[in-house]
Design a protein that fits this description.
317 residues, 8-stranded parallel beta sheet, alpha/beta, 34% helix, globular, 6-stranded mixed beta sheet
């Protein structure tokens, strides 16, 4: 059984390889049961954390299980609030193959999924990316998007202006023309692509700010209580694609507008699997705003883990 650390996992998941791997996995498909969610109590019986168990497999090929421990109280202990591991098995025999860094897999596959969607939905001549947020996933977005579009300019906005400036400096060192911004409405009005990766529970981006031909990428809202975009982002004939149908049942980004009649589930143009398999078309001439909403899926984790493992096998041969 191989043990692949975070540095090795990161090096194996370059976006030039990871995005095509996700495209192939979405097109071919795999078995993805609903994730298990368990609340863990402390010694006093109070809720201390949440355990997520996310399996996926391709019959006769690979089986993967990601475990995610979310412990908000860790901030008071000087520890990260989230830890994740990934176990990969032979799906034919059950033989354990590898343990990988789950945090790297999660963050990189999340950014790659957004770029994959943009490869179908964003304007072909998109050059200006606005990132809303300054966390782990947000930091990866310019590099991921540059794998599918000729991104020349990157703006970043975050509630903490110092974090936004630090991120812009990091991107400049990576060769981007990157700048932190404080006027979010003005920045959104200029951007070809707006990508949100926050933990917001109230709208951060408003449809009235966006260009009519822009692409909006919504990553952060993965529970019914979370939301990054207002109702207007989905109006005016915007074309909405989700990563999986599960998003319609999990994300406050979609549940809220649907409850208010802004759009219905039948109005969703399709899923990433539909795009990757050619069942629905990508951006067409004359399309206005496109919107992609993701909540994450164990399919993406499996595709990333297999990519890491097979590269490790080649390197060891």
């Amino acid at each position: 059984m191989r043990f692949v650390d975070s540095d090795s996992t990161r090096r194996a998941l370059g976006f030039d390889r990871l995005i095509p791997a996700l495209r192939t996995m979405f097109a071919t498909g795999c078995e993805v049961p609903l994730r298990h969610t368990h609340t863990l109590a402390d010694a006093q019986g109070d809720a201390a954390g949440t355990l997520l168990i996310m399996p996926a497999w391709q019959p006769g090929a690979y089986l993967g299980i990601k475990t995610v421990g979310i412990f908000p109280g860790n901030s008071q202990r000087g520890l990260p609030g989230l830890h994740s591991t990934y176990l990969l098995f032979d799906a034919q025999t059950g033989v354990p193959l590898a343990q990988l860094d789950g945090n790297e897999i999660t963050s990189r596959r999340t950014a790659a999924a957004s770029a994959l969607a943009a490869s179908y939905l964003a304007p072909a001549d998109a050059r200006h990316l606005l990132v809303v947020g300054a966390g782990r996933v947000a930091a990866l977005l310019p590099t991921a998007y540059r794998a599918v579009r000729s991104i020349e300019r990157v703006s970043v906005w975050a509630r903490n202006a110092a974090q936004a400036e630090a991120l812009a400096q990091q991107w400049r060192s990576e060769g981007f023309d990157a700048h932190a911004v404080t006027d979010l409405p003005a920045a959104a009005a200029e951007a070809d692509i707006v990508s949100c990766a926050t933990l917001a529970t109230e709208p951060v981006v408003h449809g009235a700010w966006l260009r009519p031909d822009s692409h909006l990428d919504l990553i952060g809202s993965f529970t019914p209580a979370m939301r990054e975009a207002d109702d207007a982002c989905f109006g005016g004939g915007a074309r909405l694609v989700v990563d999986t149908a599960e998003a319609l049942h999990k994300s406050g980004e979609l549940l809220g507008p649907m409850s208010r009649g802004v759009f219905a589930a039948d109005d969703v143009a399709g899923t990433l699997a539909d795009l990757c398999s050619g069942r629905v078309p990508g951006r067409c001439e004359g399309d206005g705003r496109t919107v992609f909403k993701s909540v994450g899926t164990a399919l993406e984790d499996l595709a990333a883990a297999v990519l890491v493992f097979e590269q490790a096998e080649v390197a060891a041969a």
